[in-house]
Amino acid sequence: HFTGGPVSKEGEVVWHNYRCLHEVKQNTVLKTPEEAMDNLKNILQTKTLKATCTELIYGETETEKFCCVCDIPLDDLTFHQEYYGDYAVGFNSNKIHKNFHPVLYFEPHLAKILNIEASMKDIQAESEEQLFEMIGIHKGNPLINFLKLTHFDPDYEDSFYGEREWRCLKDFHFDYGDVEAIIVPKQQVNEINDYIKSLGYQNITVLSWDFIENI
Asked: What are the residues facing 67 on neighbouring strands?
């Protein structure tokens, strides 16, 4: 779970408007390092990830509030860092699997779903909504809470698929032993080490981005 962003430049809800990482990067800014570090410390102190995020699926169809984590291979963390900042906490996978559900990624463009030729891709939004209703994507279906519309593209930034997101529809409460690792900039490794020791955490791996980039 990354704690450093993004925040909309226009004050809008970030996850109501964008369908890939590139769009997020274009229209948002990351939280400041101070804000990201404060968020990380607050999560560790309260032992809680708060369910405050929502996503707009289409029209007025919106998810319930959730908190989320991402199942990202170590080799891909630096890609994620570019869009979510330099501060993160990693949890025990068994704890996550007992409390979170994986997200289903879905192509939002009707033309791509139906494999329509380029000349016919000016499909109206109403038609897309009709398709969603037909296949059961509507307000009354609880599965929309675990649905994310995005493009499927081999380029990491032209999709959300690489995040491998998991969601929990309530505040996630964890114990000291559920935290496996913390990632911060190299110059703040000692600071966060001292902080977690003051809270009673033990045997937590603290990594710097320098280490991750060079393994």
From this structure: 168
